[in-house]
Amino acid sequence: MSLGVSAIGQGLMYGILGVGLFLTFRILNFPDMTVEGTFPFGGAVAVSALTHGVDPLIATLLGMLAGMLAGLITGLLATKGHIPVLLAGILVMTGLFSINLRVMGRANLSLLHQPNLFNAKILKALPPYFDSVVVGLIVTVIVVALVIVFLNTQIGQGFIAAGDNPTMARSLGIDPDNQMILGLVVGNGLIGLAGALLAQNNGFADVNSGIGIIVIGLAAIIIGEVLFGELTLSQRLIAVVLGSIVYRFVLLFVLALGFAPDDLKVISAIVLAIAIMVPSFENKLHIRRVLKNGVKSDATSK
């Protein structure tokens, strides 16, 4: 029971990561490697701020702002510096490793006996692990609602158009470069927010927490798409969060089978690979069914 509740809470917070990655990976078609630096950066800034007596809510927002700054730098390198998008993300990700060490002063910074969002007085009356569900649900609902509102504004529609067809967007007076910067700022801001929340939930920030984090975000996106199929854009954002929760339960099931926690990275990669291949297999099977039905109908007519 407690493990299931914890999986839901963690899934909700990783769902914010998935939504941030969805904006760059799916809408902008931008393979943003900054994610693996932004996630620990948000956690490092939030935890460092908390250890210096900053209010938990403000510390969390600082983690989000840190992510936005990282996204801005990647966007400027890609658009103004004309550095290939993949390389721009890798450069920022690499630089953030040293910055995270500077921010925390060490590789791992604990929140032991420090106030944070998850040990607020109002949450202490809840059963174990329900604090992560409550905080995760509140923040996720706010984030998804704001992103949906943003995408339905004129700026948001320009952002979608720039990702869908940059040439046509440019002919309509939309600058794809500015939209790319906007998407990277917003997307990495959400990823920094997820890093800040999960660092507080785990009780520490670690410079290595971003390793493989892009796989977790992509798994949430792909699993949501595979499970729920054709959806509107707003519904796909909700599907990403639900996909993240399903993914956490998959990992929980794998651990129950006897696998070691050290195996989770390779298992995550395998789960993502399978999720990506499923639509392809479904299409092939559908084609085969059509061919079989066609052959049967021809045989019957003869």
Task: Describe, in plain words, how this protein is organized in 3D.
- The protein has 11 helices and 2 strands.
- The protein is mainly α.
- The chain has a two-stranded antiparallel ribbon with strand order 1-2.
- Helix 2 (35-51) crosses helix 8 and helix 9 packs across helix 10 (233-256).
- The N and C termini lie far apart (61 Å).
- The relative contact order is 0.19.
- Provide the low-confidence segments as ranges: none
- The helix tally amounts to 11
Helix- and strand-based class? mainly alpha
- Largest beta sheet, briefly? 2 strands, antiparallel
Q: Which range does the strand content fall in?
A: under 5%
| Global shape | globular
List keywords for this structure.
302 residues, mainly alpha, two-stranded antiparallel sheet, 2 strands, globular
Report a brief summary of the structure.
It contains 11 helices and 2 strands; from the N terminus they run ααααβααααβααα. With 302 residues, it is mainly alpha-helical.
